[in-house]
Amino acid sequence: EPGMRWFVCTYDLAVALRDKIEAWGPRLAIWDEAHKIKNDSAKRTKELVGYSHKNSRGFWTNEPGLADRVQVNWLLSGTLFANGKPREGFNALKMVRHPLGEDFFSYGKTYCDGHQVEISKSGKMAWDFDGASNLDKLSEAMKPIYLRREKDLLGLPPRIESVVPVELDPAARK
User: Fold this and answer.
1) Is residue 93 within 8 Å of residue 29, measured between CB atoms?
2) pLDDT of res. 118
3) Quick one: CA dihedral 54, 57, 61, 64, positive or negative?
4) What is the pTM of this model?
5) Does residue 109 sit in helix, strand or coil?
6) Phi-psi region of 65 (alpha: psi -120 to 50; beta: other; left: phi over 0)
7) 142, 128 in Cβ contact below 8 A?
8) What is the Cα 160 distance to its own chain's centre?
9) Rounded to whole angstroms, how far apart are CA atoms 80 and 85?
10) What is the pLDDT at residue 83?
């Protein structure tokens, strides 16, 4: 609805509804599954977080994402830093406009154990940001914006798993 003040949405649905969401002009967006925006080259990440590219004149320019058009972004995730890699949380910090989300290179050197590695026999070097470092410092910096609850504190019932056999006709088996 035009004039909507807030909404809850998954990233894939937001990509499909981008024009409508921009027309609504909501003040608050609550994004579910925040861990799905970790890959910078994924379409959903570019649409929501934005991206940089060279324009036709050869200058770097920033394309804003949908999250830039919303005043406040809240993110939901059960696994923000999957595998203990701070790199995977940078886009989330960028979406909520945390100061740590302003400059990946600085963030990467500080929290992703950023260091140069030789990538060719000719001595060509590249930066590697796949590690983790200063996690206590990162955790402290995120305290004002990050609320984590363990499953046992949520009062959820025990998970029930069951196997349900299904008969397939010969055509469905192929």
Assistant:
1) no
2) 92
3) negative
4) 0.77
5) helix
6) beta
7) no
8) 29
9) 9
10) 67
